[in-house]
Design brief:
The structure holds 2 protein chains of 2 kinds. In chain A, strand 1 (91-96) and strand 2 (102-105) form a beta hairpin. The radius of gyration of chain A is 18 Å and the shape is globular. Chain A has a single domain, classed as Alpha-Beta Complex (Sulfite Oxidase, Chain A, domain 2). By secondary structure, chain A is an alpha+beta fold. In chain A, 20% of the residues lie in helices and 21% in strands. Chain A has helices at residues 11-14, 17-31, 50-53, 59-64, 77-81, 106-110, 139-146, 184-188, 240-244, 290-293; strands at residues 91-96, 102-105, 116-123, 128-138, 154-159, 179-183, 193-198, 201-202, 212-214, 227-233, 268-271, 281-282. In chain A, the strands form 2 sheets. In chain A, strands 3, 4, 7, 8, 9, 11 and 12 form a 7-stranded mixed sheet that branches. A 5-stranded mixed sheet of chain A has the order 2-1-10-5-6. Chain A is built from 10 helices and 12 strands. Mean pLDDT of chain A is 85; it is low at 1-52. The model of chain B has no long low-confidence stretch (mean pLDDT 93). Chain B has one domain (3-199). Chain B contains 10 helices and no strands. In chain B, helix 3 (44-73) packs across helix 9 (157-172), helix 5 crosses helix 6 and helix 9 (157-172) packs antiparallel against helix 10 (178-192). The longest helix of chain B has 30 residues, at 44-73. Chain B is mainly α. Helix content of chain B is 77%, strand content 0%. Chain B is globular and about 50 Å long. Classes of the chains: A alpha+beta, B mainly alpha. Chains A and B meet through helix 4 of A and helix 3 and helix 5 of B. The complex binds protoporphyrin IX containing FE (HEM).
Amino acid sequence: MRYRFSTGLRHSDVTPASVFHARRRFLAGIGAGVGAGVLGLPGAGRAAPDITRLKPNTYEEITTYNNYYEFGTGKEDPAENAGAMQTDPWTVEIGGLVERPGAYGMDDILKGAPIEDRIYRFRCVEAWSMVIPWNGFQLSHLLDRVGVQPGAKYVAFETAVLPDVMPGVKRNVLEWPYREGLRLDEAMNPLTLLATGIYDKPIPNQNGAPLRLVVPWKYGFKSIKSIVRITLTDSQPQTSWNMSNPGEYGFYSNVNPEVDHPRWSQATERRIGGGFFAKREETQMFNGYGEEVADLYAGMDLKKFY
Amino acid sequence: MSGLADGINRTARRIPVWPLYILGVVPALAEYALGLTGRLGVDPVKAIEQQLGLYALQLLIAGLAITPLRRYFGINLLRFRRAIGLLAFFYVCAHLATWLVLDIQLLWGQIWRDILKRPYITIGMAAFAMMIPLAVTSNNRVLKRMGAAAWRRLHRLTYLVALLGSVHFVMLVKGWQLEPLIYMAIIAALLLLRLDFRRMPLARGA
Ligand code: HEM
């Protein structure tokens, strides 16, 4: 049974910010970030300290410290540059091995979408992390709607390329468009979210408006932003960071403190917003979502499939 | 042109060197002040760490520019070079200290693994290590004891330090970014300017 504690985008209009925050903190604590209890098992086996550990980052922190290289490589660049991107109207081309391919407008995608609040840990490969209260719906909902053909094994995603408003795409920091992908079972996992909002506000451009992926047990770059294309495939799709540097970025890129990255030790992380002297925290296997996702990788050597 | 150079040289001769040491540390203190008062965005530690690294690299470039400035433009700023070099060392130390204390937080196991296993850290550490003998020998007493020729030979290490510093920068950013490549190109150009075979600058300890 799904435990959903809030729906609707007008929610914050009637809830004072302090209540909103307090309640979120509580729910994040009991669910330990597990989609605030996707499994409906509050507190299952998770220690109380998580209640304070999972205090969400502020809206300002979440929306001014972004990696979105289409808008520049500095952390503040996206917040500065992304304002000009038009996200309404927006269409997502859904194709490949699906029953009902086509260009889906955002209105269509959102029609009947079961939008939920999900407080997730977010772990960047650069060894920093945040806690983010997303609004969104499960990717599985959309995939069920368009109908996945039996032969499909992977889902490929692409970000918009808008040279007029994206200063970053003029240079080949990466090969554009930005591409990401998931195995179908990863895509169908209840934790995998298509986010449309943060703190009950429409998701800001710099965070990937109007529609982005959130895969909380993987490094942040897997959670592709401003999606314009979703393709179901039978073979593993190419992904941008893997194309640019296969030795450092694997297809799976699950958060894993034991598999080191050549540039950043993944054993610990710095939580953004903790202030000047915030202590580093130990990074958890699958970013703390092992109970929900470890089965997906049973029998796989995660040092090989990093 | 020589009129301009003469003017600069005349002015430069009148400026004492010692205030440079004081002014030089101000940007580092300012960076910390900004960070502590919440004016460096939501991740002040990373911002300080990166800015101090950038200042260090810029000072290394300034130090390397002294000789070509004199040779090609007749501008003589030689008397400031020691201060510039020592300030570069100061910024590398502050950069390293920020990493050790505020970023990696004295987790010695992880520090040690980072130094050994992360090439950009290994290279940064190598550059830092090479700067130690340079800093220690940057005073007149040691200079006299070593003799000018040996001293100059040792201080050619700065070429390698600057190169490694820029390699460190190129390696630590994700993807192919322009800024570190520009720094690297400037340093390469400053080193190439020294390869003037007719004048044999290396033999003269440029
Ligand atoms: C000559 C010596 C060095 C120079 C010139 C130098 C220069 C730089 C520069 C220019 C940056 C990038 C600034 C930016 O992103 O805007 C940087 C970043 C960094 N350096 Fe150094 N550095 C040196 C030595 C070291 C040493 C000894 C260490 C530590 C062992 C170190 C650790 C780092 C770290 C951790 C970063 C930040 C990486 C990140 O953005 O996550 N550096 N350095």
